[in-house]
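Before the break, one more example. Copy the sequence into your notebook; we will annotate it together after we see the structure.
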Amino acid sequence: MEIPKTYDPKQAEETHYARWERDGCFAPEANTDANAPTFSIAIPPPNVTGSLHMGHALQHTLMDALARHKRMCGFRTLWLPGTD
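Here is what the structure looks like once it is written out:
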């Protein structure tokens, strides 16, 4: 298999995006089965202790990815970021 020298995101991502749309991955709650296992992450409001840095973005990105993964695995999920 020859790997192209340039990356074409449209070609690579269209298939995945169509599947995610079809499977309801962008719906607020994709699983309506009350007996499905649950998964939740609730985080407190952010503390103002200094300047924002990449660690803040990394933490939220990891939690978002984990919640989405659990939802795709059939869990009823809630990711509740804190706000002030």
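The two ends are 52 Å apart (CA to CA). Helices lie at 9-22, 54-72. Try to locate both features in your own notes.
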